[in-house]
UniProtKB/TrEMBL annotation:
Family classification: Belongs to the alanine or glycine:cation symporter (AGCS) (TC 2.A.25) family.
Main location: membrane
Pfam family, one: Na_Ala_symp
Topology of the protein relative to the lipid bilayer: Multi-pass membrane protein
Domain of life: Bacteria
Protein name as annotated: Amino acid carrier protein
Lineage of the species this protein comes from: Bacteria, Bacillati, Bacillota, Clostridia, Eubacteriales
Transmembrane regions: 12-31, 66-86, 138-161, 181-200, 207-228, 240-263, 308-331, 351-373, 394-416, 422-442
Alphabetized Gene3D superfamilies for the sequence: Amino acid/polyamine transporter I
């Protein structure tokens, strides 16, 4: 598994992932970057922008479902793993991948909404498989790529969306509270099964509560750790930048004895960054397709903020907390380097004591639980594309719940390698889709800019001018 994983996530995949983001950013005239403010405002706007639009859940619930599947172990465990295997500099490459990932996530979501269909059950279905099937220039190639994406997505749902999450929950709960892994596994399987009975509506409601509350709570706690360890922050930032671009470097001071090259820093930073924000995987657009919206670009901008919140906010808090804590590169009681959730817990404990460990544990549990729910929806919709059977969907829900127990009792290395491999494989058809249909994305982007944003901004300027004139009178 490790050999396959190293091949899938080799230099070619890194270039393809980041390169696609760079290409889309240039082709879209940097509009995803320039309109980030508009995107963030749209997330919290109370305007009825979806009036007349079809969909199963609100635009906000769609984003929360997508965020539920992204804000998870990658933000807490993945960042720590990247900083151990790739050095502190891996955090820089996570930021770089996220910046260009904004354009990738935007394009994915635009295509998902544009090519979505209504199933026989009355639900909306969309994602790279439908964009490939209905929009790819050469139909038979698009059909083959759509099949491969759906197959890899179903397999990935058991890895990145289930095994990894359940494993991190059981590891954190066991380390902090001493709960046996099999007990955690049973509780998780039961809770997942209960929520999945209600389908996407149930998933959207649960994620709409868990994700924003836990994200804010974890963010505040992380900022507190950074503030209390502020004396080490300048040195930590210096190590992060130095090791991101150094051919061969050994961390010192707060970086412990971590050794990494610029290639390994880039490799683990991009890999864990993509694992965290999922830009380029093609998973989040499946949730975007279910949103009630009146324009593909509107939902594209809203879903794009998932990458911003996930990596540029939450992952940064974890990374800076670790960098300023002084625990990176230290060993545990077993004589091995602290890694994964144990490293993040140790970082939070340096400032918050035992409460820090509990905060990380609760964060892992809730983030990972919501990720399991979000990825079940991705896997179910991908399976629905392959077999067109409601019975198969119900069977998948049952199997998915049972696999949660397996994930809680499986070794970390096997789980991560499997997850990384499935991530890489499902991203290949999706990236090909994005490159082939980039012209469609560009047209939708320009149409929204010319017919929605520019008139909207002109109207706001006119209103402000009218108010100023009224004030003078």
């Amino acid at each position: 598994m490790k050999a396959v994983n190293d091949f899938v996530w080799g230099p070619v995949m890194l270039v393809l992932l980041v390169g696609t983001g760079v290409f889309l950013t240039l082709r879209l005239g940097f509009l995803p970057w320039r309109n980030l403010g508009h995107a963030l405002k749209s997330v919290f706007s109370r305007e009825k922008t979806a009036a007349g639009g079809e969909g199963d859940i609100s635009a906000f619930q769609s984003l929360m479902t997508a965020l539920a599947a992204t804000i998870g172990t990658g933000n807490i465990v993945g960042v720590a793993t990247a900083m151990v295997l790739g050095g502190p500099g891996a955090l820089v490459w996570m930021w770089v991948s996220a910046l260009f990932g904004l354009s990738t996530k935007y394009a994915e979501s635009v295509l998902a909404v544009k090519y979505r269909v209504k199933t026989k059950s009355g639900e909306m279905a969309g994602g790279p498989m439908y964009a490939l099937r209905d929009g790819f220039p050469i139909r038979w190639i698009g059909a083959v790529l759509a099949f491969l994406f759906s197959l890899f997505a179903v397999l990935a749902s058991f890895g990145i969306g289930n095994l990894t999450q359940a494993n991190s929950i059981s590891d954190a709960v066991g380390s902090t509270f001493g709960v046996p892994t099999w007990v955690t596994g049973l509780v998780l399987a039961a809770l997942v099964g209960v929520v999945l009975v209600g389908g996407i509506q149930s998933i959207g409601k649960v994620c709409g509560v868990i994700v924003p509350v836990m994200a804010v709570f974890y963010f505040v706690a992380g900022i507190a750790v950074i503030a209390l360890n502020a004396g080490n922050l300048p040195q930590g930032l210096a190590e992060i930048v130095r090791m991101a671009f150094s051919p061969t470097a050994v961390a010192g001071g707060v970086g412990g004895t971590i050794t990494a090259t610029v290639l390994s820093s880039m490799r683990w930073g991009v890999a864990r960054g993509v694992f965290s924000n999922e830009a380029g995987l093609g998973s989040a657009p499946i949730a975007a397709a279910a949103a009630k919206t009146d324009h593909p670009s509107r939902q594209g901008y809203i879903n794009m903020t998932g990458t911003f919140f996930d990596t540029l906010v939450v992952c940064s808090v974890t990374g800076l907390a670790i960098a300023s804590s002084g625990v990176l590169g230290t060993v545990g009681a077993d004589g091995k380097l602290l890694d994964g959730v144990n490293l993040t817990i140790a970082a939070f404990r340096t400032a918050l004591g035992s409460a820090g460990g509990m905060i990380v544990t609760v964060g892992i549990a809730l983030f990972a639980f919501s990720t399991i729910l979000g990825w079940e929806y991705y896997g179910e919709k991908s399976l629905e594309y392959l077999v067109h059977s409601r019975a198969a969907n119900y069977l998948y829900r049952v199997l998915f719940s049972l696999v949660t127990f397996l994930g809680a009792t499986t070794s970390l290395e096997v789980v991560w390698n499997f997850s990384d491999t499935m991530n890489g494989l499902m991203s290949i058809p999706n990236l090909i889709c994005l490159l082939a249909l980039s012209g469609v994305v560009a047209r939708e982007c320009r149409d929204y800019q010319e017919h929605v944003l520019i008139p909207q901004r002109a109207e706001k300027r006119a209103l402000r001018a009218q108010k100023r004139s009224a004030g003078k009178v």
